[in-house]
Amino acid sequence: MSAKRQEIKTIQPALQPVKGHGGWVASLLLAAVWLVLPSIGIAAEGTATGPTEYRDIPYIGSRNLVWIVAQLHLLLAGFVLGVPIFAWLCEVIAWRGGEKRYDKLAKEFTKLLTSAYATTALFGGILLFLLVAFYPKLMNYLTDVFFPSFLLYCMLFLLETATLYLYWYGWDAMQDGRKKTLHVFLGFLLNFFALFIMIVPNAWATFQSSPVVLSEGTALERAWAATWNPTWWPINIHRLIANVVLGGYICGAYAGVRYLSVKSKEDREHYDWMGYVGNFIGVFGLLALPFAGYWLMREIYQYNQQMGITLMGGFLSWLFIIQAMLIGVLFLGSNYYFWLGITYRIPGSEAKYRRAMLMMLVSLLLCLAVWMTPHSLVASIEEAQKMGGAHHPLLGVLGVMSAKMTVSNLMILITFMSFVMYWRAGKQDTAGWAKFGKAVMGAVLVVASLAVIVLGVWGYFVPAIVRINYFSTSQVAIVGFVILTITPLTALLLKSAKTTTEMVWGSMPPRAGYALVLNAVMVILLMTLMGYARSSSRVHWHVYGVMRDTSPYAYSPALGSASLIMAFCTFFFCILVAFIFWVATMGDKYKTTSGTGKGDLPQGIPAMAGGAPGKQRQ
Amino acid sequence: MGALGKPIILMVAMYVFLKFILPNIPGSAPLPSSLIFLYLLLTAAGIVIFETLSGESKDAFWGPMERFLTGENLGGLQALRYGVLVLFPLLVGWQTYGSTASSDAPPAESRTIHPAPPGEYTGLSNPVPKTPENIMQGKGFYAAFCSPCHGGNFDGKGPAARGYNPPPANFADPTTIAMLQESYLFWRIKKGGVGLPIEGAPWKSAMPRWELELPDEWIWKIIMGEYDGAHQSPRTWE
Amino acid sequence: MSEVAQLQLIALSIVGIGILILLFIKAVFLRVTGFVAIVLGLFSLMSLAVPQLASLPPAEEKIDIASIKTPTDIASIGQTVFFSKGQCALCHSIGPSESARCPDLKGIGAKLSKDFLYESLTDPQAFVYQDYRHGGVPKEYPATMPAIDKDPIGLSKNEILAVIAFLQQMSGEPISVSTSELEIPGQPSPAPVKAAESSPLAIAQAH
Amino acid sequence: MKRVNHVMKRVLRGALAAIAALIIAEASLSFAQESVAVKATIVTGGLPVDDPNAAIWSSAMPATFPMSPQVHWPNRIQEVTVKDVSVRALHDGNQVAFLLEYSDPSEDQDDAAAFEFMVGDKKAHFAHGQPMLQVEGGPVNIWFWKHKEGKAVDMTAKGFGTLKPQTHQDVKAKGVYSNGSWKIVFSRSLTTDHPEEDVQITPGEFISIAFAVWDGRKDAVGELVEKGSQKAVSSWWYFRADAPPDYSGYMYAAIAAALALGFQFVLIRKLKKGQ
Questions:
Q1: List of chain B residues whose C-beta atoms are within 8 Å of the C-beta of residue C94
Q2: CA dist., res. B116 & res. A224, Å (int)
Q3: Looking at B43, B65, B99, which one is the last position of a domain?
Q4: Which of A299, A535, B28, D104 keeps 20 to 30 A from C2, CA to CA?
C-alpha cells in the first residue's frame, strides 16, 4: 500500500505525462525484455501476511511487459485468424469460379499459417506465464470464474492444430473433385474452430470490463454466466471483422513490398494483383467496422455510463481524435490506391475520372475535417479566452456524436463509390436499360447522402436516446441499403458491358506499394491504440467495479508516452510478420531457381478487376 | 509553374479563410492554432494526393518543383531559388527555437468539461416527483443559489461569473446539460468543483460543494428547475 | 527538458532515421522499414501534441464509524456499497435503464418494508417476485439474484442495512434504518469477512 | 466579356481590401484582450519596494484580471466593489516586487488586498487550497495587506479555517491611495528558507497566482460589507519572473538548421543525379 502512495506522489503532476519510470525509454529496447526476463520475481512485492498479489520486474515494469506481450499476442492472433478467413475465401472463389490463381494465392497464405500459428502460441504462452507471475491475485480470481472455459480452450486448440495441419499438408493432395470439397470443408472447420478460439478468450477479457453478478452454482453455470456478459458479442463481431481487415491489409502490404522488389514482368503482375485483392478485402471489412465499433461503444455506454464517459468525454477523449486521424489516413490510403489503380491500370481513363476523383477527394477531406474536429480544443489560455472556453462557438458543434456519425457514414459511402468507379472503369454499358439503371443508382446515392446529412443535422435537436436508437441506426441502414442496391445493379450492368480498355497489371508506380504498406501500418496501429483504450477504460480496476487494481501500476499512462509503446508493438509486429513471410517463402526461391517458375500466371486478366470481386460477394 | 502555383494559392487562401474570415462570421471566434494546423494539414494531404493520382499529374506537379530545386533551366528565377534554399533551413531553425526557447505564453491547458462521474453517481434517478410545484420550487432554489453565476437566463452569464475561469456552464447550450443524465448533475452539484477528477482541473473551479449546505432533495429539485428553465431535457435511456 | 520534450525528441529521431534510410539506402526492404519508421514517429509526435492526461486511481478514503451520525450518513455509505463492493449496480438500476438485467429498483424503498428488503437480499428465492411491478406471471431476467451476505459478495449486516437506507432515500422515503441498529465495530461480525478491505464501514472505496 | 472581367477585377480588389481590413482588425483585437499572466521584467539597480509611484513601474507590462464575488464558500455576497485589478511586477534576480492597482471610490481603514500562490508541485484549489476529493492538493501561500495595519502578513493555508500567519514573515507591502484608486506594492525575495510554506520563484517558470480584494466600506448600520470570505476574488492565473537570457535555444536552432541544410543538400544532389 505504501508503495502505491509513493507511486502516486511521483506521478502527482499528472497533467504532465507519467513520470518516474525509467522503464519507459528502456521499454523501447527489445533487448531489455530478454535481458530482464530471467530476473522475474526479484522484486516480488508481497507482505509477510497473506498471499502475494503482485510481482514486478525492474526497469521495464511488469505492466509494460505484459502490455507489450499481450498486444503482440493479440496482433498475431488477429493475423492468424484473419489469414485463414482470407485464404478460405480465396479458395472458395477458385473452387467455384475456376480461377486457379485464387487457389495459388490462398495456398501462398496458408503456407504462412503454420509458422504464424506457432509464433502466436509462443507469445500466448509467454503471456500466460507473465500473467500468472505478475498478477497472481487476479489470475486466481479469473481461474475461479472461468475454469471450465480454460479446458474448452485447450480442447479447441488441439482441434484447431489438427485441422490446420490437415488443411495445409493436404492442399496438393486434395485438389480434385470430392477431395477438393473435403478440403474446402476442412478450411471451413479451421475457421469455425478459430472463431471459437477467439471468442472464448474474448469472454475473459470482456468480463474484466463488463462483469456480471455471479450467483452460486456449478462451475459451469458460473463460467457461462460470466461469459455471456454485455460486451462479449459486440467485441466478438468487432474483432472478427477487424481480423479480416487486418488479414487483407497485411496481404496487401506483403504484395506491396514484394512488388517494389521483384524484377520480372510476371512477378510484378502477380504482386500487383495480390495487392489489389488484399486492399479490396481490407476495404470491404473496413466498411462494416465502424458500425461494429459503434455498437460496441453503445453497449459500453449502456453497461456503465462512467466507462462510456471516460472513453468519449473523459481522459480518453483525445484518444478518439487520434483514432479519427488514423482511420482518416486509412480511408485516404485505401481510396488513393483505388484511384491509382484506375489511372495506371486502365490507360487513358484518367481524363474521364479525374473530376470525379477530385469531388470524392474533397468530400472525403471535408468529412475528415469534421471527424477530426474535437469538442474541446487544444488551445493556449489566450486562445481559450478568445473563444470563451475550450469550445469554439461555431465549430464546437462539429465535435459531438451526431456530426461524427454522419461523416463516418458518408466516408463509407464515398469509399464504396470509389470501388464502384474502379469496377466500372474501362467498360462500356451495352444493356438497353443502362441509362435508366445509372439514373436509379445516381438517385439512390444522392437521396441516401441527403438523408444521412438531414438525419445528422436533425440529430442535434432530438433527445440523445432518439438519436442513438433511431437516427444513427437509420443512417447505418441507409448506407447498407445503398451498398445492397448498387452492388447487384452494377454487377448486372457489367455482365453485358463491353470492355473498352483492358486492364494492365504490373504498371503501378512505387508509391502504390508504399500506400499498401501505410494502410497495413495504420490498421496495426489502430489495433494497438484500441488495446490501450480498452485497458485504460477500466481505469483502476482489474475487473470493473469488482476487483480493484492495487498495484503501483493502477494508473493509466498518458497518451504520449503510451504511443511510443504502441509504436514499438506495431514495429515489432511488422518485423515478426516479415520474418514469418521470409521463413515461409524461403523454399520458393529455391524452387523457382531450380526451374519450375511461375508458368501458369494469368495473362489476360480482363474480367478480374471488377468481375471477380463482384462474384465473390454474391 | 501553373501546376505548382495553384496549390500554393489554395493553401494561402485556406489559411486566410481560417485565420481571418471564419473568425469574423457573426457568432464565431478565432480558431486555435492547433485546429488551423489540422485543417491545413488536410488541405496539403489533399493536394499531394490529387497531384500524384496519375503519372502525368505527378510530373506536372513534381517536375517544376524538381527543376526549381535543382536549378536547371531556371533563368531569372535562380535568385528566388537561392532565397528558398537559404530560407528553408532558417525556417526550420526558427521553428526549433520557438519550440525549445522558454516562451512567454503560459502552458496550454486542456480541461475536460464533462469528465466521468464516480461510479456511485451513474445509475441514480430523480426520486422527487416531477410536479409543477416541485419544478417551481427548484427554480426558486436555482434563483437563490445558482443564478449569481449561472445566470437568471441559465446562460452562464450571472453577475458573479466574470472573474471565474473556467466560466460557469451555460445550460442553454445544447452540448451541456442536454447531453447529461440527471444523476450526472446530481454529482456535480453535490460535490462541486473540488469533487472533479484530475482531468476536470478541480483546483480552478469555483463551483461550491453544495452537499455541505443543501439537502439532497433540494438538489434534485434544482436539477428539475434547471432543465425546465433552460428548455432542455436530460439524457435518458427511454 | 520536460518529459514530453524528451519523448518528442525520441519520436523525432525515429522520423529522422526513417528519412536517412530513404535518402541513402536502396535496398527495398530497408526502405520500407524506414518508411514505417517515419509513419510511426509521426504517430507518436501527434499523440504527444494532444493534451497529456494520466488517469490516477482515486485515493482510498477511510470512513470513520464515529462520523456516522444521521441516517443520511448511513445512506451515503449504502450508495458506495451499492455501486462497488455490493455489485448491485452490475444488474440493477435505479430508474429506467436499457441495460438493466434485473428489476429496476426505483421506488422499491417505498413499496417494500425494511425487513422484506433485508430478506430479499439475504434469501432472494424466498418469495420469487421476479418482477415486482407486474402482477401475474413473473417476468424472467437473465441473471439470478445471489444471496448478498454469502460469498462471493459477502456483505456484512451493517452494509446491507446501509444499502437499504440508500434505497429508501432514493425512493424519497424517510430512512427507517437507525444508527443504533448498526453493529458496533470491533465485535466480530457474523458475516464472512475475508480481508480488511471487505468491510467498507472501516475502509470504503470512496471517491 | 470585358465587362465580366472588369466586374471580376472589382470584386477581387474589394475582397483584398476586406481581407486587409480584417487583418488589421485582428491585430488591434489581440492587443485589447484580457491578460492571462503577470510577467516580471528584470531590472538592475534596485526595486521600488516602497514606492508605488516610482517611474520604473511604467517599464513593466500591466496585466488586468477580472474579479468576482467569492461564491465558493459561505458567507457569500452577491456584489463587490472592485471589478478588475491591474498587476505589474519587476524583479532583479534577488527580489520580486508586485504593484497591485485597482479603483476604489473610498479610502477605508479596512481596505485590504491579497496575493495567493500555489506552493510546491501539487495543485491547490484557489479557495485557500481547500481539499479536493479526487486529487491530492497542496498548500497555498497568501500575502495579505490591510490599510489599517500598513504592512503585509505572510500566511499559509490548506483548506478553509487553516489560514495562519507564518512564524517567519518575509513579505513587505506598502499602499498609497490617491484619486480613487489604490496602488499597493508587495515585495519579497525570490526564494526563502521555507519551501514547504512559501512560494519559491524560479525565473522562467510559470507559477499559479490569484488575487483578492476587500473594500472596507460600511453599510448603513456600520457593519463592514466585505469581510472575511465576503470579498472579491479571481481565478488562478499565471505569474512568471523573466529568466536571464538563455542561449541554448539558439544552439538547438542552429543544429536543426544545419540538419535541414544537410537534408536539402543531399536531396538536391539526389535529384540532380536523377534518382
A1: 123-125
A2: 31
A3: B99
A4: A535
Cell of A72: 503482440
Angle of CA points A302, A308, A311, to nearest 5°: 155
Are B178 and B210 contained in the same domain? yes
Give the count of domains, chain D: 2
Of D194, D172, D52, nearest to D115 (Cα)?
D172
Question: Other C-beta atoms within 10 Å of A319: how many?
Answer: 23
In a shared domain, residues D125 and D110: yes
Dist CA A463 CA A471 (whole Å): 11
Per-residue pLDDT at A2:
41
Within this chain, do residues D23 and D100 fall inside the same structural domain, yes or no? no
**B130 and B90 share a domain?**
no
Number of C-beta neighbours around residue C76 at 10 A: 22
Q: If 0-12 CB within 10 Å is exposed, 13-18 middle and 19+ buried, where does residue C153 land?
A: buried
Lookup result for grid cell 444521521: C70
Instruction: Tell me the average pLDDT across C171-198.
Output: 61
Q: Is residue D272 part of a domain?
A: no
How far does the CA of residue A525 sit from the closest CA of chain D (Å)?
28
| Total domain count, chain A | 2
Residue A129 located in a structural domain? yes
Note whether residue B112 is domain-resident. Answer: no
- Contact status, residue A23 vs residue A61, Cβ threshold 8 Å: yes
Is residue A502 helix, strand or coil? coil
Q: Given this model, what pLDDT does residue C194 score?
A: 37
What residues in B contact C79, CB-CB < 8 Å?
Answer: 120
How does pLDDT run across B67-118, given as a tens digit for each residue? Answer: 888 877 777 778 888 888 899 999 999 988 887 776 777 877 777 888 888 8
Assembly ipTM: 0.85
Q: Render pLDDT for D159-174 as a digit per residue (tens, 0 to 9).
A: 888 999 999 999 999 9
Tell me the CATH class for C61-206.
mainly alpha
Domain locations along chain C: 3-49, 61-206
Whether residues B37 and B72 fall in one domain = yes
Q: How far is C50 from chain D (nearest CA, A)?
A: 20
CA separation for the pair C113, C9 (Å, rounded): 65
Spatial CB neighbours of B184, under 8 Å, sequence gap ≥ 6: A305, B114, B117, B121
- Within A386-434, strands assigned E span 427-428
Q: Residue D81: CB partners within 8 Å, gap ≥ 6? A: D104, D105, D213, D215, D217, D226, D232
Distance CA B32, CA B19 (A): 9
Q: Do B32 and A393 touch (CB under 8 A)?
A: no
**Residue D135 confidence (pLDDT) above 50:** yes
Look at residue D60 and tell me whether its pLDDT is greater than 50: yes
Distance CA B112, CA B197 (A): 9
Same domain, D130 and D164: yes
Greatest CA separation found in chain B? Answer: 86
> What is the DSSP-derived secondary structure letter of residue D58?
G
Q: A558 — contact with chain B (CB < 8 Å)?
A: no
Report residue C170 as a C-alpha cell.
Answer: 432514493
C53 in contact with A, Cβ within 8 Å: yes
| Predicted confidence band of residue B65 (pLDDT cuts 50, 70, 90) | confident
As given in the structure block, the three cell numbers for residue B187 are: 454529482
For residues D18 and D73, membership in a common domain is answered with: no
Using CA atoms, how far apart are residues A301 and A545, in angstroms rounded to an integer?
A: 15
Query: What residues pair up with B117 in beta bridges, in sequence order?
Result: none
- The C-alpha atoms of residue A156 and residue A148 are separated, in whole angstroms, by 13
Strands (DSSP E) contained in chain D are 37-42, 63-66, 68-69, 84-91, 95-103, 112-118, 140-146, 151-157, 164-165, 172-178, 181-189, 206-214, 232-233, 237-241
pLDDT of residue A114: 86
In a domain, B113, yes or no: no
Question: What CATH number did the domain enclosing B202 receive?
Answer: 1.10.760.10
Residues of chain A with pLDDT under 70: 1-49, 589-618
Mean pLDDT (chain D, rounded): 87
Residue tagged 485515493 (cell numbers):
C59
